[in-house]
Description:
Elements: H1 8-19, H2 23-27, H3 33-40, H4 48-58, H5 62-69, H6 76-86, H7 92-108, H8 112-130, H9 133-147, H10 155-164, H11 170-184, H12 193-210, H13 214-231, H14 234-250, H15 255-270, H16 273-290
Helix pairs in contact: 6-7, 7-8, 8-9, 8-10, 10-11, 10-12, 11-12, 12-13, 12-14, 13-14, 14-15, 14-16
Amino acid sequence: MDNHSAGFGKTLLRIRKNKQYSQQYMAENKIHQSTYSKMERDLIEPTLGNYRHLLSRLDMSDEELQYIMNDYNHSEKEQLLTAFMNLSFNDVPLLQEIQEKALKYLDVHTDYIITDIVHLTDALIILAITGDIADARKHVRPVWKRLEKLDGWYLVELRMINAMLFLFPIDEAILISGTALAQIQKYVNHPFAGKIAVSLRHNLCLLLLKNGRYAETIMRIDELIPAAKEAGSYRHLSVCYLRKGLALAKTGNPEGQLLIDQAFRLIEAADDQDFKANLENEYNLLKEQSTV
């Protein structure tokens, strides 16, 4: 349990006292009380079985406990991951900032995922500055070379694949996203898995649209719209309407412009100015490519 050793006992003691639980309650005949006492004093580390038992007695997830241990913040690695996954991929200064932090992290730690982030930020910076997708793909090759060898992908690898999906040729991206979505099915009840799946589907639709695969774009977006409505996500729904509208308009269907207008009305009604700017930017870029 090395990842929980620093401050684990003191954190356990503080939470237990705040909850007004006794040591006997925490041990619950599963852990010898003297062993439990040594854990609180950081004299010994819990076994995996004991650690899971303690989480159950505290009514906490591992993520919450680590968050508390880190002074109510995400770990440095989690902050890097979150920043990378949430950024706009054409924001060069922010990409450079994340890359700099990732390189500093790697000065101290050996970490495959943070190394992946360095490669991906290299690719995204090149793409944002020069638009040279062939050059950008060279920088993601080490990431994909590592990931494609794995027998299965877990959530963090699936997040990486989602972030780099648009750097693959379209037919390869379709195959990879299909495999990734099949892997996500294993996490059907996990709270984050659904978000990754939706993001993958949206990214694939965007790739199809950019590559002129309009019928496939429309078909896949039609699969996304009911879920967006059920979730009450006006952002996802507006993106669906915009992309489907552009695909329809490119095929000469007059309903396309109606859907585009509907997408912007949704955002106007929500008074979501930041997202409206993002949607307008996407519309202008895709309109140039699609010649609506």
